[in-house]
Sequence to fold (191 residues):
Amino acid sequence: MAYDIDMIKKVYNQIAERVDKAREIVGKPLTLSEKILYAHLWDGEPTTAYKRATDYVNFAPDRIACQDATAQMALLQFMQAGKKKVEVPTTVHCDHLIQAKQGAAKDLQRANETSNEVFDFLESVSNKYGIGFWKPGAGIIHQVVLENYAFPGGMMIGTDSHTVNAGGLGMVAIGVGGADAVDVMAGMPWS
Fold:
């Protein structure tokens, strides 16, 4: 599921037209963040010059990343949505329930013993609903997202406060609560 090239091509195929339209509507040069935000409007092509701290705007993120501690409730909520699979590429990363105390091997073993039921649940739900699953020991979400999912011009939300790390590659990446992630998983806009 890393680097969904078709999804990235779709973003790049529409970004220039949407940014040009936004520039015309706003009537001034746009920052990189503004370009990405206008290119990810839920309704598609820009029609309004939005005002900071005033306007309510709906967006269509390209992907979602969840960490194991917050994904539990989010996936339980998603299961209630009645969908057969997630509408937006989503991943679950099992790293937060691993406590660093005695070294990688022992810490991973302890996490697998104490949180096995959680990991099994997350893997099962992920498999059922088309969600990418990064098992315990597969990597820390902050780095995995940066190396495998971030791309310039994209938009990502994640249930981890360090989702913003993906911004290092020129992406708008925002940490959100589980309920926001569930809305997008179910095919609704993010505001």
